[in-house]
Structure formats: C-alpha cells, structure tokens
C-alpha cells in the first residue's frame, strides 16, 4: 500500500516561520495569519508525528533537540518543492518574462551594460531587473534564490561561479583631509579616524568582511555618496579603484599611503542560485556577460602585445 504522508508542506513552512521569526506572534504578522491558526498547525504537526518539536518559554518558542533535526530536514524538503515548482514554471513558460540579476556594488557595471547591449536584440521582450547588493546581502539573495543570476564577491559553499573580475579596494580621503599629505600611516592611526562605510543590503547584516576597525563610522548607500562626503574633507573610505579615478585625476581625492595593507582584492564571480531551473533568457544573458569580459581581456592582451612590440 503506498505511503500516505501524515503532515503537509504548509505545516512545515509554518514551523519554519515560527522558528525564524522567534515566536508565534511574530510569525503570524509575517505570514498574515492569525496566531491561533499557527498554534493549531504546529500542535497538529507535533500530534501527528508523536514528537515534541517546540517548547515555549515566556513569549518565545524554542526548538527541542528532535525539533532541530526535523526542522533542518524539513527545510530541504520545502526547498525541493520550491525548486520543482520553479522548474515547472520554466518548462511551462519557456522563455522567462523577467530576469533578475543581483550585482555586488563593488563590481564595475560597464561590463554588465555591454552584455545588455548584446542581449537586448535577442531578449524577446523579457524585463530585466538589476538589483544592487552589498556583502551579506548578496549571500542572502543566493541563499533565498531571489535572483536568476548573481555577481558576488564570495561563492558560497555548494555553488560554482565563473570568475569575472578582481576589484581592487584602496583607502581614500578628500584632498582637504588632514591625512591627505601624510607620507605613511599605520592601521592603528587609521582606526582613530572617521570611516565611511557602505550599507550591507541584507535583512540581517553580518559584519563578516571589510575593514571596520574605526570606532566612528558613517554609513551610506553607495560609493558615490561616500565620495561626496570625502570631498568635503570628512573621513576616509575603502573604495574600488575604478570609482575614484576622476577624483584622483582632478586632485579632489587622495590615496592614503599605508605602511602595509594598502589595498584589498575582491574577486567577483557569476553564479546562478538554481542552475538546473535557469531559463533560456538568463542563460543567454550569462553568455553575453562572459563574452563582455572575454572581449575586454582580448583587448588588454592586444595592448600588451603592441606595447611590447614597440
């Protein structure tokens, strides 16, 4: 006799929401359901399984040891269901009506724009959404599979990425800043200065990368806001070298001369959070993006050959 499940996907999703939100009331707001319906769903889930998954202490719900194991396995099941539904949607629709590409802010977008120039005549009317992301915000998009393509400074475990570019970060101040003309600084001196940092786009940011040792920090949304503040003579910021070329050329920005650690390198890679369900439009855009980098590399190689020949 075929096996008949005792539980439903919806019950497991409710359990996950209660744990992730930290309680029934918070999960009810998140899911736009009544708290009593969530209590009933989890109680029925535990009853059908014959296993206690949650225990409530005060106003918060905590997982039991058995609950931790079951929750972890349930996430795999619900993710597989989501993947199946996405796959069916892709098969049914063929060419996708919308393509979402998340781009780490530190990546030079002119490569993406060149790719879109090639992609547009073949795009079949697909809408393209370009999503700026920063640090753990990019990892969050990969984890949640909320974009078709992602350009990331880190490739999470379990994913493969195509190398695209290495962004070089350098410490920069405005020409009016007291440190602009110092010949050599150490990191201890730098930690006493106001630092301008770029906001992490994650829902729950985690400071896992970047140089954040200054006690006084101002946070902005993008590099260009940071540059405007620097040009007033306020603070310093680690910035991609391609964003500050104009300011260095006109003298409004200066590179800080550090005794060591004067630059940071961030390799950028292109990946897809759900490769097996990637639609034909997304695959074509990926090819155009890889081709844009290959064209640039060929141009650089040609320049190198010509200069060595002269």
TrEMBL record:
<dbReference type="Pfam" id="PF00126">
    <property type="entry name" value="HTH_1"/>
</dbReference>
<comment type="similarity">
    <text>Belongs to the LysR transcriptional regulatory family.</text>
</comment>
<dbReference type="Pfam" id="PF03466">
    <property type="entry name" value="LysR_substrate"/>
</dbReference>
<dbReference type="GO" id="GO:0000976">
    <property type="term" value="F:transcription cis-regulatory region binding"/>
</dbReference>
<feature type="domain" description="HTH lysR-type">
    <location>
        <begin position="7"/>
        <end position="64"/>
    </location>
</feature>
<protein>
    <submittedName>
        <fullName>DNA-binding transcriptional regulator, LysR family</fullName>
    </submittedName>
</protein>
<dbReference type="InterPro" id="IPR005119">
    <property type="entry name" value="LysR_subst-bd"/>
</dbReference>
<dbReference type="InterPro" id="IPR036390">
    <property type="entry name" value="WH_DNA-bd_sf"/>
</dbReference>
<dbReference type="InterPro" id="IPR000847">
    <property type="entry name" value="LysR_HTH_N"/>
</dbReference>
<keyword id="KW-0805">Transcription regulation</keyword>
<dbReference type="InterPro" id="IPR036388">
    <property type="entry name" value="WH-like_DNA-bd_sf"/>
</dbReference>
<keyword id="KW-0238">DNA-binding</keyword>
<dbReference type="GO" id="GO:0003700">
    <property type="term" value="F:DNA-binding transcription factor activity"/>
</dbReference>
<keyword id="KW-0804">Transcription</keyword>
